[in-house]
Amino acid sequence: MSEYSGNEAVVMKNVCKDFKVLNRHEGLKGSIKDLFSRDYKTVSAVKDVTLTVNKGEIIGYLGPNGAGKSTTIKMMTGVLEPTSGELLVNGKVPYKNRTENCENIGVVFGQRSQLWWSLPLIESFKLLRDLYMVTKEDYEGMIELYRSLVDIEPILHKPVREMSLGQRTLSDILAAFLHNPAIVFLDEPTIGLDVSMKAKIRELILGLNKEKNTTVILTTHDMGDVDALCKRIVIIDKGTKIYDNDIDHLKTYFGSYRTLKLKRADDEWEEYLIDEKTTDVMDVIMEKQKQMKIKDVKIDEISTEEVIKKIYEGGAK
Ligand SMILES: Nc1ncnc2c1ncn2[C@@H]1O[C@H](COP(=O)(O)OP(=O)(O)OP(=O)(O)O)[C@@H](O)[C@H]1O
Ligand SMILES: [Mg+2]
Question: pTM value?
């Protein structure tokens, strides 16, 4: 790819990934038949995806379950080879330069820790420092930066197995950034965390991105992550890219939508998404009032959550 300018963290051109899977038969007889079967079908997990991510960007790589997000990340990290198309990460073909690629990337999979289970975090840090040949100066600078962004004292001398899920996630993120990689992949980094830990993690990611200009590719089903971290989102569905633009652009696209919230007699809120172009909010309120007692009313603009849901349902191209 001659047009690589050096400014791109990721360049994907018409990337496809197919998996060959066995056509399974049911029952015991079927299972035995499968052992000798040559009856394969092809699953197209990623279809013709073209995408450029610039250095320092945080992008949300979104899509419903099974859309092809993890498959894309696996190709970017060099674990999988694309079936066709061109893919460069930091200007290199990931699966052909796996060692080099590892030095340039960091990876965090929510729930699954990459750290040494029985070692205190600081010992894991030292191992990573040696593994990646981080200089003493850079290492100390990084620890200093960590101290300025989060309270690392309570976890630094704790073995990972004794940590809470939140502390472990925090540790995993710190470990992924330790060798100052150009790109960090975060796969569901806030899954299972409480509200305040989520906020802490998001702040940390933002701080690291800002200080180190690290490119972050984030996959998540949590729209709070998207709101807090991403200016730009890419959405794939059934392997095909269906949206790639600023999140603000998307909200403008759905600018005529309002969220109507009605408080019922039992103090629970009911929500309705209304397109003001076709429906009058007042009409809806009047109609609802015939069926139930309304204690309070709120009208908001469309949330990221609802925007994404609309797109998954085929509301925008
Ligand atoms: N190793 C594999 N062999 C066969 N099929 C696979 C393999 N890995 C993924 N697939 C299929 O490819 C498609 C995309 O899967 P992928 O894991 O990339 O989705 P995802 O967007 O990460 O979903 P989720 O949000 O559930 O994590 C799915 O249909 C999946 O079954
Ligand atoms: Mg996945």
Answer: 0.86
